[in-house]
Specification:
Radius of gyration: 14 Å
Low-confidence stretches: none
Number of strands: 4
Largest sheet: 4 strands, antiparallel
Distance between the termini: 22 Å
Order of helices and strands: EHEEHEH
Oligomer: single chain
Number of helices: 3
Helix content: 25-40%
Strand order of the largest sheet: 2-3-1-4
């Protein structure tokens, strides 16, 4: 089953780095809404376990915009290997989904 909407997740080192990505995606109408949360990330990197505070972005978007969103994040991201994952929105409040449709390209 093809999904019409998705949430794309990426993390950034701080709010300033996140704002660059947020502004770019919203200006291009690739996303309807982007939420930022502050998290502590634990991960393996180049043979060591690391722990860093990060800003995680939940990017609500049309599924058909994923390739452009991924390319835009890669262009604007400061990480060598940024997290970029897509989660399908299986269902949701029709009013919200209609709003996403109206504000995204």
């Amino acid at each position: 089953m093809d999904n019409k909407y998705s949430v794309v997740i990426t993390t950034c080192a701080n709010d300033e780095d996140a704002k660059i990505i947020i502004d770019s995606l919203l200006e291009k109408k690739l996303a309807a809404c982007i939420q930022v949360f502050h998290v502590n990330s634990y991960y393996s990197w180049k043979g060591s376990v690391a722990n860093d505070p990060e800003s995680i972005l939940f990017i609500k978007c049309k599924d058909l915009n994923y390739d452009e969103i991924e390319a835009d994040i890669i262009t604007n991201h400061k990480y060598e290997t940024p997290e970029i994952i897509k989660l399908p929105i299986i269902t949701g409040f029709s009013g919200y989904l209609q709003w996403m449709e109206e504000v995204s390209k």
